[in-house]
Amino acid sequence: MRTLLRGPLHGAGASDAVLVEGEVITWVGQGRPPQRPDEEVIAGPGELIAPGFVDLQVNGFAGHDAAAGADAIAAISNALPATGVTAFLPTIISAPVEVGAEFAAAVGAAAEATGARVLGAHIEGPFLNPSFRGAHLRSHLAEPTAANVDAVLRARPRLITLAPELPGALLAIERMHGAGIVVAAGHTGADFEQGRKAIAAGVRFATHVYNAMPPVHHRRPGVALALLLDPRVTTGLIADGEHVHPSVCEQLVRVKGPSRIALTTDQTSAAGAPAGTYELSGRPVHSDGRVVRLEDGTLAGSAAAMPDLLRLMSRLPGMTPRRAVSLASVVPARVLGERRLGRIGEGACS
C-alpha cells in the first residue's frame, strides 16, 4: 500500500509531500513521487504532517494495565495510534525483581503487536527511595545489590528508573549503562552532588522531572537541577498541567532547551477512558478524567494522552506546534537511539 501525504511537514516546507510504502517512508519531496500512490491524503488548514510520537512511559491505556501481561500490552499497542503514538515503552512500577523480569519477558512477547511499536520494557523501580516512592508500594522496594542488578541485566529492559543515592546504586548504574540499558534517575531524594555523580556513572534520563524528587532550593538545588544543567541528560516531562505547572514547563524549556525534553504521558489504564476506577500494576486507582490518584490522594500517573501534553506545550511562550511535536518524537527516539523513529525522511518508519 502506497500512501502520499501532502501538506506542511514537521521540520520542512509548506508544500512538501511524503510517500509511505507499508511502514517505511520511501520518498520526501515536492511534486510527483517516483511511484504512483494508491491513495493521496491532503492535510487540511491548520494541520501538520508529523512523525509518529514515541512515549517512554506507558503504564496502561484504554482500560488495559500493561502489568497484566502480553495480551494487555498488545491491546494498548492497538489503541495508542489513535493518539498519534506509534512507538512506546510499556512500563511497570515497583515490583519484586523477579516480577519485573517476567514483565520484560511479556513485553518481548508483545513485540510483534500490530499497532504502536513495542520498543522494550521500562521498569520503574524497585530501586527507589522510600521517602519519594509516590504510588509505589514500600514493600516492593529493594536495594540495587549485585544479585538484583544481575537479575535486571538478564531481563534486558530498555529503560530502568532508580534512585542514585541508594547504597550500591552508582555501581549498578555503571553496570546497566555499560550493558546498553538507558538508566534514569527518578523517585529520588538525591542532592545536587549525588545527582552529578549519577550522571558521571551513566544516568542519561530523568523520569518525570520535578515529580517524586526534592524541589529546587536556592541553597539546596537537589538532583533536579543537576539533571537540568547537564547536557548529557534528557528530562521526561508530564506536561498535563497537573504534574507540573505550565509556568515551570516554560522554565524547563528555557533552562534545558527543547532538544533535551521528552514528553512522557505516564499514562495508566485510565487514559483514553471515562472517569472511574482502574488499575496501576494491579493496584486500584481513581481517575477524574484528567489525573489518577490513590485513595489517599497520592498522584498515581496520568489520564492524559500525548495530544493533551502537546497542546499545553505549544501554547508556551516561544513554542509552536512544530517545536512541541519534536518533544514527542525526535527527542524520545534519540533517548533510545532509535534513528528510524521520530522523524520524517527516506528510510524512516511511518
Q: Could you give a quick summary of the protein structure above?
A:
The protein has 350 residues and is α/β, with parallel strands linked by helices. Helices cover 27% and strands 23% of the residues.
SSE topology sketch:
Elements: E1 2-6, E2 17-21, E3 24-29, E4 39-42, E5 53-58, E6 60-61, E7 64-65, H1 70-79, E8 85-93, H2 97-109, E9 117-118, E10 122-124, H3 146-155, E11 159-162, H4 169-178, E12 182-185, H5 192-201, E13 203-206, H6 222-229, E14 234-237, H7 246-256, E15 261-263, E16 276-280, E17 283-287, E18 291-293, E19 299-302, H8 306-314, H9 321-328, H10 330-336
Parallel strand pairs: 1-4, 5-8, 8-9, 8-10, 10-11, 11-12, 12-13, 13-14, 14-15
Antiparallel strand pairs: 1-2, 2-3, 6-7, 16-17, 17-18, 18-19
Helix pairs in contact: 2-3, 5-6, 8-9
Describe the 3D structure:
The protein is an alpha/beta fold and 350 residues long. The protein folds into 2 domains: 2-42, no CATH class; 53-336, Metal-dependent hydrolases (TIM Barrel, Alpha-Beta Barrel). It is built from 10 helices and 19 strands. A hairpin with a 5-residue loop joins β18 and β19. α2 packs parallel to α3 and α8 (306-314) packs across α9. The model has no long low-confidence stretch (mean pLDDT 94).
